[in-house]
Each structure stands twice: as C-alpha cells, then as structure tokens.
Amino acid sequence: RSRADFRVKESYAYHPEPPLDVPVTVLASTDDPRAPHDLQDRWRDQTATSFRLHTLSGGHFAVFEQATTTHRHLSTALTPWSC
Predict the structure, then answer these.
(1) What are the angstrom distances between the C-alpha of 23 and each of 34, 35, 36, 39?
(2) In this structure, what DSSP letter does residue 47 have?
(3) Which residues, 6 or more positions from 50, have their beta carbon under 8 angstroms from its beta carbon?
(4) Could you tell me the CA-to-CA distances from 3 to 6, 9, 13, 81 in Å, in that order?
(5) What's this model's pTM, rounded to 2 decimal places?
C-alpha cells in the first residue's frame, strides 16, 4: 500500500448525501475482518435504484480467489451499460 492509501483511510469521514441514481452491486465475503459481511448491506442506502449483495465464501481476497464468480457478477452488473 502507498502512503496516500493510508492518508485517505485515516482522514476519510463519511458525510451523508442523497442516494445515487445508479444501481449498486456489492461483493462481500463471509470472513473478512476488514469488511464485516453484516455491514455490507448498508450500501443499499447509497442507491435510489436497485441493490444487489453477492456473498462469496472466504476472507479478504475472496474476489480474487473466486475470480470466475466475481467476473460473472460484475459482468451481469455492467451489462446494461455495455456497448
């Protein structure tokens, strides 16, 4: 990680704003101590349209370890915007 990554993490403060008018898709894992699964549903509040939460078994790197599943979920989420 770069120093800038740590600065952003240390200085970031959430400020509530109106929900986005775009769909939100979240890929969460069952055992990520950095991003607890039970908190991922809160992303639902950030959209005024559709929300999808997909759960992968594993820890912090589950999206890489299950690349085929990750790609399928992302492809499905992005299909409406593809050319």
Answers:
(1) 24, 21, 22, 18
(2) B
(3) 23, 24
(4) 5, 10, 18, 34
(5) 0.78
pLDDT, tens digit, 9 for 90 and up, residues 36-78: 888 999 999 999 999 999 999 999 999 999 999 999 999 999 9
Distances (CA, A) of 71 to 1, 13, 67: 24, 30, 6
Among candidates 34, 76, 33, which has minimal Cα distance to 54? 76
> CB 67: neighbour CB atoms within 10 A?
10
User: What SS3 class is residue 61?
Assistant: coil
- The C-alpha atoms of residue 83 and residue 45 are separated, in whole angstroms, by 29
What DSSP designation does 18 have?
P
The alpha carbons of the chain give a radius of gyration, in whole angstroms, of 15
Locate all alpha helices (DSSP H) within the chain, ordered by sequence: 3-11, 37-40, 62-65, 67-78
